[in-house]
Amino acid sequence: MSPLPDHTDHGARRAVVQIAALFHDMGKATNLMQRKLRRSLTSPSFEADAIRHEVFSAFVWDELFGDHDDAKLLAALAACTGADIDRVMRPVKKRLLKLHSDCRKADGNVPIKLAFLENEGSIAMAVGHLILSHHRLCEGSDNFLRFTAGAHVRGDLDLNRDCLDIAPGAPYWHESWFKDALLSGVALLRPDMIATTASLEIGLR
User: Fold this and answer.
1) Element (H, E) at 137
2) Are 177 and 171 in contact (CB under 8 A)?
3) Residue 151, Cβ neighbours under 10 Å: how many?
4) Is the distance from CB of 40 to CB of 64 less than 8 angstroms?
5) What is the mean pLDDT of residues 26-50?
6) In this structure, how many other beta carbons lie within 10 angstroms of the beta carbon of residue 157?
């Protein structure tokens, strides 16, 4: 089965990946990741994360767009500013601190609750999947609709409250190239372009 309907061109497929790529690394701007990167300059050894950067990024996407239908999503993406992204960091932090705490109690066997997972057949869901599972597949169901946190959140590792704050400096989503790339991707998308989310997610890999 083709991951997209026959009338959907390769440009639209690339646009889904492009937008996912723009949001995927937002978690690397946190204190958690920036401190880890600085430590790696003098001690280049493997260091696990209490919360992986792609989980943070997926929650940012979810907070902004997770419940949007395609038409609403495209309009919101076109209007999105760096300040809009900044505004969701506080609720994202709150959600992830709770997820980490729940994982600590349940050894990782905790559902990842994301609105885009309930938004089946949408562009929001396709992009969210790619943000979350780019490095590793989630644990959970085989239908791409129900995930647990075990592969991405380590409840056994400490997580200070400031670890999920954005590190000092101007994050990349305030750069002009980010907005330009976002708009160029949005221009190639259209509502109702996705056949089935599961086949899209597999096809885009």
Assistant:
1) none
2) no
3) 18
4) no
5) 86
6) 14
